[in-house]
Amino acid sequence: MDRILRGIMRYRVLDRATMVKQFQHVRDNPVPKAIFYTCMDSRMIPTRFTETSVGDMFVVRNAGNLIPHSQHFVDEMTSCEPAGLELSCIINDIKHVIVCGHSDCKAMNLLYKLKSEEESSLEQRRISPLKSWLCTHGKSSLNKFLEVKENLEKPILFSAETPQRKFVAYIDPENKFCIEDKLSQVNTLQQLQNIASYGMLKKRLERHDLHIHALWFDIYTGDIYYFSRRAKRFLIIDESSYEIILAEVRRYYS
């Protein structure tokens, strides 16, 4: 708390006046362009590595950047993740939903351990909210990953905006990342399928009026990857790939 209070005082001196001007600029007409789902990991600062500012996008964070599939909710049961989809996509009419996973994700490290029946037992889930969360909403990612773990050079099939629109992904073809990071990439792509499960988004997704994207952040290098459906893999976003990725986005997701 000492550090947070000192930070607030520094903010008052250095940044407050600028931020107030930005707040005033967007106060009456905020026009966010995206909703950004990412992990609650303290090392993830999405507004910094995307250079976005006040009013640019909604941000939802949780353990493992999970968006629960709609099948988990009946009657009035829900969670903040689908509520965020409604607020952004329905009420505010944004056009882009972005899911961003990352390397060395503690939630994904634990999810991989939950392949053990002992670790994922009912008793364990009752005493650990995190294990319960991951077993309930991350098991589809884990199962998909375990099906191909011994043969990752082969593509994995995912559903996209509609059940008929599918894409394939080659996970870490250069074999640069550890097994848990590979799971993290699969999990990030699985969330696109989960997002598309919500009926409130169906019409917009079918008429290509709403687009879903996957990013992946390498904590230790600072590199950010974009999942390219044309390349069927996560591509690093850098000087050599930027124009290629931008052309794909403009052609298919504008």
TrEMBL record:
Binding site for Zn(2+): C39, D41, H102, C105
Highest taxon above the source species: Eukaryota
Cofactor, how bound (note): Binds 1 zinc ion per subunit.
UniProt keywords, alphabetically: Lyase, Metal-binding, Zinc
Cofactor: Zn(2+)
Pfam families the UniProt entry points to: Pro_CA (PF00484)
EC number: 4.2.1.1
Reactions catalysed: hydrogencarbonate + H(+) = CO2 + H2O
Example GO molecular function: carbonate dehydratase activity
Cleaved signal peptide residues: none
Entry keyword Metal-binding: yes
SMART domains membership: Pro_CA (SM00947)
Function: Reversible hydration of carbon dioxide.
Classification via PANTHER family: CARBONIC ANHYDRASE
Family according to the record: Belongs to the beta-class carbonic anhydrase family.
Protein's name in the database: Carbonic anhydrase
Species in which this protein is naturally found: Euphydryas editha (Edith's checkerspot)
